[in-house]
Design goal:
The chain is α/β, with parallel strands linked by helices. The protein is 41% helix and 20% strand. Helix 4 packs across helix 11. The structure holds D-malate. The site of D-malate has 16 residues, from helix 2, helix 6, helix 7 and strand 7. Pfam families: TctC.
Length: 312
């Protein structure tokens, strides 16, 4: 009878593999966070979570794909601060940001780094700003499209120095990094989950980190506050979502598996190497993610309206 009971329990959700949509290209920071978390959650759920990269339109195509997916618990989304900024940046979104998703929980909050191709002459942020102002018609800034974290940080940079620069959009900052390493693009503001290795290896130049304090893995890198641009302080929080209507049993199991994954030694160690930490139990909850999304939409709306950088 006990075996029967076990099998009966196991017959609940999930009964087959789950798709985790990452709304940016493979190899970028969002993909890095997603694959680490998905691998650990798979172990806890007893079903494979397969990551699917759906890039384009600064992450809004992937988010829209999940919003219109069957709410059966087998399609979920891992997205970041761009879910909040896109609500203001896009006048026409395929989904209603605050009503199209169920919330699972927060995952991690990643700092950003202002970086440049390695032969950029400037040796500090002040010098980089001077160079950008003097060459504003030719300096190129890479990002992952309007709505990306790299777009938000690039927008903060340009409004902080009151100088619009030429922006070059990619499907993710994984591909953008390839061009930065090759010197095809000049500057980028990207998450430490994608830049730490290159900065440590000297294959790109770094000028500042957007966290309030310096990072132990990049201890020589000044904060934007130290470097004179305190208004650039920003953290890229990531969350897991499911389509509205996903059964609570599925949400609860996904949330339980997320909490266990965020305590996985391998996940914590890898996050630490990349300059970030897993969210706490209290933050890895539906209520915390909902509150974060709502407060961040309100926080960034006036900043975006002042910068006037919309997608039409
Ligand atoms: C972003 O800029 O939002 C991310 O870096 C995009 C990505 O994960 O590639």
């Amino acid at each position: 009878i006990s075996l029967g009971a076990t099998v009966a329990n196991a017959a609940g959700y999930p009964e087959r593999q789950i798709t985790m949509v990452v709304p940016f290209a493979a190899g970028g920071p969002t993909d890095t966070v997603a694959r680490l978390v998905a691998e650990s959650m798979s172990k806890n759920l007893g079903q494979q979570i397969v990551v699917e990269n759906v890039g384009g339109a600064g992450g809004t195509l992937g988010a829209g794909r999940v919003a219109s997916s069957k709410p059966d618990g087998y399609t979920i989304l891992l997205h970041h601060i761009g879910m909040a900024t896109s609500a203001t940046l896009y006048r026409k979104l395929a989904y209603d940001t605050l009503n199209a998703f169920e919330y699972v929980g927060l995952v991690t909050d990643v700092p950003m780094t202002i970086v440049a191709r390695k032969d950029m002459a400037a040796t500090d942020l002040k010098g980089l700003v001077e160079y950008a102002k003097a060459n504003k018609d030719k300096v190129t800034v890479a990002n992952a499209g309007i709505g990306a974290a790299s777009h938000l940080c690039g927008m903060l940079f340009m409004s902080s120095i009151q100088t619009p620069l030429v922006t070059v959009p990619y499907k993710g900052t994984g591909p953008a990094m390839t061009d930065l390493l090759g010197g095809q693009v000049d500057i980028m503001c990207d998450q430490t989950t994608n830049t730490t290795k290159q900065i440590q290896g000297g294959t790109i130049k770094a000028y500042a980190v957007t966290s309030p304090e310096r990072l132990s893995v990049l201890k020589d890198l000044p904060t934007v506050k130290e470097a004179g641009l305190p208004q650039m302080e920003v953290g890229i929080w990531h969350g897991v979502y499911a389509p509205k209507g996903t059964p609570k049993e599925a949400i609860d199991k996904l949330d339980a598996a997320l909490k266990v994954a965020l305590k996985d030694q391998n996940v914590a160690a890898r996050f630490a190497e990349l300059g970030t930490v897993p969210s706490s139990d209290a933050d890895a909850t539906p209520a915390a993610l909902k509150a974060k999304l709502e407060s961040e939409i309100a926080r960034w709306k006036p900043v975006i309206e002042a910068a006037g950088q919309y997608a039409d």
